[in-house]
Amino acid sequence: MHPDARRPGIRVDDANHVLARELRIQPGASRGVLEHRPIPRQWASFLKPIERLFEGPDLETGALPAQLAELYDGGLSIREGSVYANFVSSIDGIVALEGGTAPSGGIISGRNEADRFVMGLLRAFADAVLVGAGTVRAEGGRALWTPEYIFPTAANAFRALREALKRDATPRLVIVTARGELNPADRALQAGALVLTTTAAAERLRSALPKATEVRAISDAELIGVDDIFKALKADGYGTILTEGGPQLFGRLVASGRVDELFLTVSPVVAGQKGDRSFGLVHGVDFGRTPQRSSLLSVRRHESHLFLRYRLRDSVFPPARAGEGRVGA
């Protein structure tokens, strides 16, 4: 469960003025193409830039606003219509603590500012951010799944990127829940989200949740099928989808062959595991003797944190076992 939403991002004096002056979209540029003008080092010194260690020869990269390009050490491109995931993991592969009820991302990452920046950057590319209800509950009610919330210092740069990509001002938060266990007071629900749920839970949620949030029944069964989720996303015109967990939802998405790429931050910590209180990246899905293979696309580093990018979709997916294509969060 990746999002670290407990602490506001770092600040830089007069950041809005600096970014407004330094970030410009080239008039008439084609979709996703930005003018890349270097910015003075003093304006980027609030965060030591991430170091690019490796990029595959066939990896497509696109121009970013200058501040983002400097901090990311280069460009980034997310293919239109793709599904990509972002998680932070301990060295021993743990992504969720205390049975998925803790704000695990911030704990595991050590609230690393570079990780928060990458989270914001990946959100800036998305039409929608897809999460399970457990991820929302674990964040304690204060989180927003927007680029500027997780890394406010680069808010103007994220906005410039979304404008160049012809995205809405913020990505749509889409929450998947079969049981409907959501707190109406949560900030994300007050701001407005799309809740995909079962027919049984929908009526109760419609009367309980804020009017800004849309509740949509997409399954008559007790569980929600992955195909039903993507039919709903397509119906609303959401093609480029970022998922941030949790590990159960991600496992179902991987098992169904829906995930194109994975952005994985490896934090220099060992979380340990005892019983079922800690979850790995994929939970509730077993590929047995035919594990899911991936291709390494890029490696970046910030101090002792590694930022890995993998391609998943080009590999051959083993068939999902019974129940692996349905979500019951």
Description:
- The structure is a single chain.
- With 329 residues, the chain is α/β, with parallel strands linked by helices.
- It has a domain at 79-270 and 294-315: Dihydrofolate Reductase, subunit A (3-Layer(aba) Sandwich), CATH 3.40.430.
- Helices cover 28% and strands 20% of the residues.
- It has helices spanning 15-22, 41-44, 66-72, 104-109, 113-124, 133-138, 147-150, 155-164, 187-191, 199-208, 226-235, 247-255; strands at 51-55, 83-89, 94-96, 128-132, 172-176, 194-198, 214-219, 224-225, 241-243, 261-266, 279-280, 295-302, 305-311, 326-327.
- Helix 9 links the parallel strand 5 (172-176) and strand 6 (194-198).
Helix-and-strand structural type: alpha/beta
The CATH topology of the domain at 79-270 and 294-315? Dihydrofolate Reductase, subunit A
Distance between the termini: 13 Å
Can you list the strand order of the major beta sheet? 1-12-13-10-2-9-4-5-6-7
Question: Could you list some keywords that capture this structure?
Answer:
329 residues, alpha/beta, Dihydrofolate Reductase, subunit A, two-stranded antiparallel sheet, 12 helices, globular
Quick overview:
The chain has a domain at 79-270 and 294-315: Dihydrofolate Reductase, subunit A, CATH 3.40.430. Helix content is 28%, strand content 20%.
How do the strands and helices of this protein lay out in sequence?
Elements: H1 15-22, H2 41-44, E1 51-55, H3 66-72, E2 83-89, E3 94-96, H4 104-109, H5 113-124, E4 128-132, H6 133-138, H7 147-150, H8 155-164, E5 172-176, H9 187-191, E6 194-198, H10 199-208, E7 214-219, E8 224-225, H11 226-235, E9 241-243, H12 247-255, E10 261-266, E11 279-280, E12 295-302, E13 305-311, E14 326-327
Parallel strand pairs: 2-9, 2-10, 4-5, 4-9, 5-6, 6-7
Antiparallel strand pairs: 1-12, 3-11, 8-14, 10-13, 12-13
